[in-house]
UniProtKB/TrEMBL annotation:
A GO-annotated cellular component: catalytic step 2 spliceosome
GO BP annotations listed: negative regulation of RNA catabolic process; regulatory ncRNA-mediated heterochromatin formation
Positions with biased composition (Basic and acidic residues): 31-95
Transmembrane segments: none
Biased composition (Polar residues): 486-495
Family that this chain belongs to: Belongs to the NRDE2 family.
InterPro entries for the chain: NRDE-2, TPR-like_helical_dom_sf
The protein's name: DUF1740-domain-containing protein
Length: 1078
């Protein structure tokens, strides 16, 4: 049967072929012939009707069809009965849609096409310029406009518009969602229209005598204008004015251009400023940040695209002005971007060109790049470090810079598995800096190193080892032969796992954490592991001579940090610009130790937590449960908080997680031998007392009394002893210390801090009268009346003026002044005192940061700890401003969380966790901030599951950011997060990326043998071991030896047979062999 031809008139049912079998399948009957005759007669009548329609004018096309008319009449009849029930109608529609979908699927599989498309055009389209909406040749509406003639019954018309119709299964139109591609494209598109200000009056109605006269809302009968014989004069004037003003309007429309977005306007403004001043480094960096904001860091191929943008902008900046080429900030960003786009030779040449500028920041970044390249293993690291050390001078700043290089090399040794060599490096440098014999102090550097080598090769006890007395004591005693300490016995591996790969990984990790001190050549196990015995020639090229007191003090703090006792803010304080320092990438390895990981991630709860209770049939939500707002991550500027200055209920800066993985005996030895001889060293003594308090509070009290016996007049020692008593809960003993020491006001160093400690003790105990009395005594005022309070305020104001005293001392007097205002007035008045002093300080300085923390702590103690009425907005608003100024300060972030507790809206907290922007520019986050955000996701105990994707997104952004991408601690945390979420395959992919970014980190490789053993095949594990050997990583025992001891190759293959069978490639190969030859 041939396809019928559709013309411009509506098609009829007879135009379509019959579904019945054709004549080849059955013979015709009389009934069929009768039906055919009736059909031909009906066709002739319809043809005559169409010819009559053609004779009529074509433009009035608004005649309704019979179907539409019947539907309209029925709609009018049904309208009087009111609206149907919504739920019943929805249920009917859902049931109908399901039935129609099933029917359509069933018929589509067996039925042939039931309609044909007519390609013949309507000749009247040329005359009238378009299709007639009621007579479109391609389709014909039936069934009250809901169906299309010839289309399956499951499909319905869901929308009719000027551009055509939309069909779908069911009767409802699908509304685009926010996740659809069209919606995302619309949201991401630039602005195409804008509202132009009116050139006329501001209001629609004219102002008359101070008010706007508007028309009434009622409708009035107004005759049409065409019935008026003469036009009013006002209308004529308006038409004339409109015609006269049409020219400027048309010219304005002709000159109209697409409006610029805020980002485009900002970039244009920056380009204009750079054209006027091309040497502005700040403007170039701002232009780079705004340009990079167009490519989100988590988008596809973001690293490559962002690097190309950075190279384009910074290449202009470096060539725009001669002084820009000397900018270290521009050079470092330029080279970081080049790592993604350049080949190895070009990148090496660019680094050599940049090193001509000089500066410790460039040298430390160059050394970090060389370590991440892993070209020549550990020997190459030593050569590169020697070159960097020789490029620096003997000034105080360069001595601190040498210590940064020294620290970086020691961390690289430890990450590569050479833990004994890294510890020996610090031992030798500490002997050289603190235990040098007096007769050798005037000798040349080579002579001093020769004498130190003699001491080292004698294998006498060194700093940190039992029985150590130091190089100076050994030299003055006539260089005796003192036997070294006995070798440590190998620790027992407590594991019941029989897998040889897991056992090998656990043993390597255990030995790296316990065997930190170098062995002696006389030890029985020295020959079995030659890397455990360290010769002086292995560390001599890296030793430096230190003369300034700052460098010598920095060395011992670095030694503590290397041993695992984190000193907050130390790494950033060593850089010339602490906010741009990236040393935290390799200095914060303590964040991924076992105690920290246990504190960062919430514990697994097997039972589902009940979030609501039912009372009389009504659901009542339970009160949210929170963890402490002050988490395990501790980060603030160096010196802002002392060792005994905690926040909240914790009175110490360190916690149990900070000392859990630390070798206590080794740290005690460092505190004992690295003390400055011949002078009072109160800061070091207080630091050692704080460590002992966390490790063993009972022995700390005894040590504190010994320190007081050696320095009875030191107020800092007495303040530390009183703080120790407060920590142990002995408030009366602490009060007795204050009353005894502060009997008179003698203006001694540390007196203001001690007066504040006493006032704080009484205030937190709830004794307001005693607190006021102590504050007045600190100010030297007598009595307690209004006159004494005014005199005390004046005295405290004078004491808090800027002077050459210790910044912590001035801060103590300011806090006393604010506390006095709090006790006698209100919290708002106390904040005015802080604001007056903060306004005179520069934002970003340690003094400003410390006073900001003090102001927040005063509100937190007054409202949260002491339960006094305080407007919640007071703490919340100040905490929000403080977070903007110091985004990585964990104390301020803890105050911010306390202010948000119980608000019920997590909008501000989510904004802090997300990749937020300022003026369209994404904010950079350092490693401590990224780690803290992981902890904040589980701060509210019931929200950890809901915040997992947000946490994953933050870690993914950190893994691609230039500031944190090269951090092995970040990759270890990211992988641990996926392991705890049960995403082992995703963790495996991350591990391959991690070893590519940090190829010299042994612990990353061992993750494949331990937690990810189930997703790694035996072949992949052996390839990992070969890669470790090629890159020079130290393995205390070879993997092949472990496998042989376990039972040989065959037994290992049998144990690993289950994993091999699950290999996807092997499964595909077996299936293909089974199906052969088909």
């Amino acid at each position: 049967m041939s396809a019928p031809s559709f013309s411009s008139f509506p098609p009829a049912f007879s135009s379509f072929p019959d579904i019945e079998p054709g004549p080849s399948q059955r013979a015709s009957t009389p009934q069929d012939r009768d039906r055919d005759s009736k059909k031909r007669k009906k066709d002739r009548e319809e043809k005559q009707h169409r010819e009559k329609i053609k004779e009529k004018p074509h433009w009035p096309r608004h005649d309704e069809s019979d179907e539409d008319r019947r539907y309209s009449e029925k709609h009018q009849r049904d309208k009087g009965y009111g609206a149907t029930d919504d739920e019943r109608r929805k249920a009917k529609e859902d049931l109908s849609r399901t039935r129609l979908t099933d029917e359509y699927d069933a018929r589509r599989a067996t039925s042939p096409p039931l309609f044909y498309t007519d390609r013949k055009a309507d000749f009247l389209n040329v005359r009238y310029g378009g299709l007639y909406a009621g007579d479109v040749p391609r389709h014909h509406l039936v069934g009250r406009g809901r169906k299309i003639l010839g289309l399956e019954s499951a499909w319905s018309v869901v929308h009719r518009g000027n551009n055509g119709i939309e069909i779908g299964i069911g009767s409802r139109r699908k509304v685009p969602g926010l996740t659809d591609s069209s919606t995302r494209h619309l949201l991401a598109s630039a602005t195409t229209r804008r509202l132009l200000p009116s050139s006329g009056d501001q209001y629609k109605y004219e102002e008359v005598e101070g008010f706007l006269r508007i028309s009434s809302g009622g409708r009035r009968h107004v005759e049409p204008s065409y019935r008026s014989i003469t036009a009013p004069k006002q209308d004529a004037e308006e038409s004339e004015s409109q015609s006269s003003s049409s020219d400027p309007e048309s010219s304005e429309d002709d000159s109209y251009t697409t409006p610029m977005s805020s980002l485009q306007a900002t970039i244009k403004d920056l380009e204009e400023r750079l054209a006027a001043d091309p040497s502005s480094i700040t403007s170039w960096l701002s232009l780079l940040s705004h340009t990079l904001s167009t490519v989100p860091i988590t988008s596809k191929n973001a690293p490559r695209a962002r690097s190309e943008i950075t190279l384009s902008v910074l290449s202009r900046a470096l060539s725009a002005h001669p002084s820009n080429a000397q900018s270290k900030t521009l050079r470092l960003r330029y080279l970081k971007a080049g790592e993604e786009a350049w080949n190895a030779s070009k990148l090496r040449d660019e680094w050599e060109e940049a090193l001509k500028v000089g500066g410790i920041d460039l040298w430390i970044e160059w050394l970090d790049w060389r370590i991440r390249r892993a070209d020549d293993g550990v020997d190459g690291i030593v050569d590169d470090a020697r070159r960097a050390l020789h490029s620096l001078s003997d000034s105080e700043a360069d001595e601190v810079g040498k210590l940064r290089i020294f620290w970086r090399v020691a961390v690289a040794f430890r990450e590569a598995g050479y833990v004994e060599r890294a510890t020996a490096l610090f031992q030798a440098q500490a002997e050289f800096a603190y235990k040098m014999p007096p007769p050798l102090s005037a000798q040349p550097l080579d002579a001093q190193l020769d004498s130190l080598e003699e001491f080292w090769e004698s294998e006498a006890p060194r700093i940190g080892e039992p029985g150590a007395t130091g190089w100076s004591s050994w030299y003055s005693s006539g260089r005796p032969d003192i036997p070294g300490p006995s070798a440590q016995s190998p620790p027992n591996l407590s594991t019941s796992d029989r897998d040889p790969y897991r056992q090998w990984s656990a043993r390597e990790l255990l030995y790296d954490r316990t065997h930190v001190l170098p062995r002696r050549s006389a030890d029985s196990d020295a020959d079995a592991d030659p890397y455990s015995t360290i010769l002086f020639s292995d560390i001599r090229p890296l030793l430096v001579s230190l003369h300034s007191s700052r460098a010598r003090h920095t060395l011992r703090l670095i030694f503590l940090a290397f041993l695992g006792l984190h000193v907050p803010g130390l790494a950033d304080s060593l850089s010339a610009d602490p906010r741009d320092s990236t040393d935290a990438r390799w200095t914060h390895g303590h964040l991924v130790t076992a105690p920290y990981l246990a504190a960062l991630f919430p514990p697994k709860s097997p039972a589902r937590r009940i979030t609501a209770d039912a009372q009389a049939g009504v659901l009542i939500g339970r009160e949210p449960e929170y963890r402490s707002a002050f988490g395990p991550v501790k980060n603030w500027s160096c010196g802002i908080l002392g060792p005994f200055e905690g926040i909240g209920l914790r009175l110490l800066a360190w916690g149990p997680e900070d000392v859990a993985e630390v070798n206590h005996d080794l740290v005690r030895g460092v505190f004992r031998h690295c003390k400055f001889a011949g002078q009072e060293d109160a800061e070091w003594d207080v630091l050692s007392l704080a460590f002992e308090t966390v490790a063993n509070a009972d022995s700390a009290s005894r040590i504190s009394k010994q320190l007081l016996a050696m320095a009875p007049d030191s107020l800092r020692h007495w303040a530390a002893h009183a703080r120790l008593q407060r920590h142990r809960g002995r408030i009366k003993d602490a009060r007795k210390v204050y009353q005894t020491v502060l009997t008179s006001r003698l203006d001694r160093p540390g007196e203001g801090q001690m007066w504040w400690d006493w006032a704080e003790l009484e205030w937190l105990a709830g004794a307001s009268d005693a607190t006021l009395e102590v504050t007045l005594r600190a100010a030297g005022a007598q009595g307690s009346g209004g006159t004494a309070i005014l005199r005390a305020k004046r005295s405290l104001e004078e004491a808090s003026l800027p002077s050459g005293t210790d910044p912590k001392e001035r801060e103590a007097w300011i806090k006393l002044r604010a506390l006095l205002e709090l006790l006698t007035a209100s919290p708002g008045a106390a904040m005015v005192v802080f604001d007056d002093h903060l306004g005179a300080m520069k934002v970003g300085t340690p003094a400003h940061e410390g006073l900001t923390i003090a102001s927040l702590a005063l509100l937190y103690y007054h409202g949260t700890i002491l339960r006094n009425p305080v407007p919640p907005a007071l703490l919340r608003e100040r905490a929000e401003r403080a977070v903007e100024e110091y985004p990585s300060n964990t104390v301020i972030l803890g105050m911010f969380l306390e202010a948000e507790k119980g608000q019920g809206i997590w909008g501000r907290v989510r904004a802090m966790l997300g990749e937020n922007t300022t003026d369209g520019v994404a904010k950079e986050k350092d490693l401590p901030r990224r780690v803290l955000e992981v902890w904040v996701a589980g701060w509210e105990k019931s929200r950890w599951e809901a915040e997992q994707e947000r946490t994953r997104s933050g870690l993914s952004a950190a893994a691609q950011a230039d500031r944190t991408r090269g951090s092995s601690a970040l990759w270890r945390l990211y992988i641990e997060f996926e392991i705890r979420m049960g995403q082992l395959e995703r963790a495996k992919k991350l591990l391959f990326r991690a070893v590519g970014e940090c190829p010299m980190t042994k612990e990353l490789y061992l993750v494949a043998f331990g937690p990810l053993r189930n997703v790694f095949s035996r072949r992949e594990l052996h390839e990992f071991a070969e890669t470790m050997a090629e890159r020079g990583l130290r393995m205390r025992r070879g993997l092949d030896e472990e496998i042989e001891d376990f039972g040989g190759e065959e037994k290992a293959r049998a144990e690993d047979n289950e994993d091999e069978e699950m290999d996807e490639i092997e499964l595909n190969a077996r299936e293909l062999r089974r199906l052969m030859p088909y």
